[in-house]
Amino acid sequence: MKTEYKIFSGVAGFLFAAAALYGFWTHGETGQVEWIGVVALIMSGLLCSMCGGFFWFVARRIDLRPEDREDGEIAEGAGEIGFFSPGSYWPFGIALSASIAALGLVFWMWWLIAVGLILVIFSASSMLFEYYSGTRHTAEH
Q1: Which positions are tagged coiled coil (predicted)?
Q2: CB 96 within 8 A of CB 105
Q3: Domain span holding position 51
Q4: Do 40 and 65 belong to one domain?
Q5: How distant, in Å, are the alpha carbons of 31, 81, 100, 121, 129 from that of 118?
Q6: In this structure, how many other beta carbons lie within 10 angstroms of the beta carbon of residue 116?
Q7: How far apart are CA 97 and CA 9, in angstroms?
Q8: First to last CA, the chain
């Protein structure tokens, strides 16, 4: 996780520097700062900082992975990484539900926002519990 938090922290630092440079540059060209770009760069930097902070927090609590060690070998990273669903349709359902909620947000239709959020909660819960009930229920879970 050290590699991940270093990458995200570096990108965040770049975005903050780019925001300062962009604000200075637009102020010099037009006499006023172009705030949309500055705010977008700052928000992007904050998002990368949040991800970098999460990876830093996790890296302190787990053992070093082979890719985080100088003497790590490729073969040490072999084996099962985790379980990934081979044929789930629920990610499409989540995307469709989020699109419905976003469409309601764009046109400021509170009822469509509510329907979209309810569908997002339902589809995310269904994806989470896909292997705990129904036809895909397995004994090992």
Answers
A1: none
A2: no
A3: 2-76
A4: yes
A5: 47, 32, 10, 5, 17
A6: 21
A7: 32
A8: 27
Can you state the angle between helices 2-30 and 35-61, rounded to 10 degrees?
A: 170
Question: Rounded to 5 degrees, what angle do the CA atoms 24, 25, 28 make?
Answer: 85
Whether residue 81 is contained in a domain is answered as no
Q: Which amino acid is at 34?
A: E
Q: In tens digits, what is the pLDDT along the chain, a chain of 141 residues?
A: 788 999 999 999 999 999 999 999 998 878 899 999 999 999 999 999 999 999 999 888 888 877 777 887 888 777 777 777 778 888 999 999 999 999 999 999 999 999 999 999 999 998 888 877 666 666 554
Give SS3 for 108. coil
Phi, then psi, of 85 in degrees rounded to 5: -65, 125
